[in-house]
Amino acid sequence: DGGITQSPKYLFRKEGQNVTLSCEQNLNHDAMYWYRQDPGQGLRLIYYSQIVNDFQKGDIAEGYSVSREKKESFPLTVTSAQKNPTAFYLCASSPSGMNTEAFFGQGTRLTVV
Amino acid sequence: AQSVSQHNHHVILSEAASLELGCNYSYGGTVNLFWYVQYPGQHLQLLLKYFSGDPLVKGIKGFEAEFIKSKFSFNLRKPSVQWSDTAEYFCAVTSGGSYIPTFGRGTSLIVHP
């Protein structure tokens, strides 16, 4: 079954610790994205990658880092520099080019205590 | 930069009522428009999309949306809602040669049986 897999579904971390969220896709999509979803704020773009070994900052990249070593994988690290990391994180992918749609994973809910 | 406005943040309806959710975008050039839905506990999924052609677009589960270029709008409609339509609805836009979606803040819809 083709799709996007995010793991884990729920994640708890202590303040000051870095944490990495996994995102894997088997749709053969070139582009991958990370969004953060907070109540009443919609989805805000953290980072995106249009091709392997290349990625760009989105609107709220501070305190986050990513890598894109493989086409299928786009992990997101939430660092201790992120001031308000507790949120719902969504990974998405799409074919590159116009007239395409994004497909989403189930999300990871991160709680920092 | 592109921005997307969803005017209704919370909507409460009774079953069989008609639904219209507003969505306006800021970019004046060529756009692709989307409505996504997030049912409780589920991943974000595409309801419908507009790339070109007939401005009245029909999607899944009886939803439709109308692209009105002069008003920069892409409102979502359904003539008769059901309890199972309870969900969060997001409008999204890609534009200006970028295929990275920009999302609105979302509308939470609750349908009472």
Structure notes:
The complex is a heterodimer of chains A (113) and B (113). With 113 residues, chain A is an all-beta fold. Chain A contains no helices and eleven strands. Helix content of chain A is 0%, strand content 51%. In chain A, a hairpin with an 8-residue loop joins β9 and β10. The model of chain A has no long low-confidence stretch (mean pLDDT 94). Chain B has 113 residues and is an all-beta fold. Helices cover 0% and strands 50% of the residues of chain B. Chain B contains no helices and twelve strands. In chain B, the strands form three sheets. In chain B, strands 2, 5, 6, 10, 11 and 12 form a six-stranded mixed sheet that branches. In chain B, strands 3-9-8-7 form a four-stranded antiparallel sheet, with no helix packed on it. At the A-B interface, β4, β5, β9 and β10 of A face β5, β6, β10 and β11 of B.
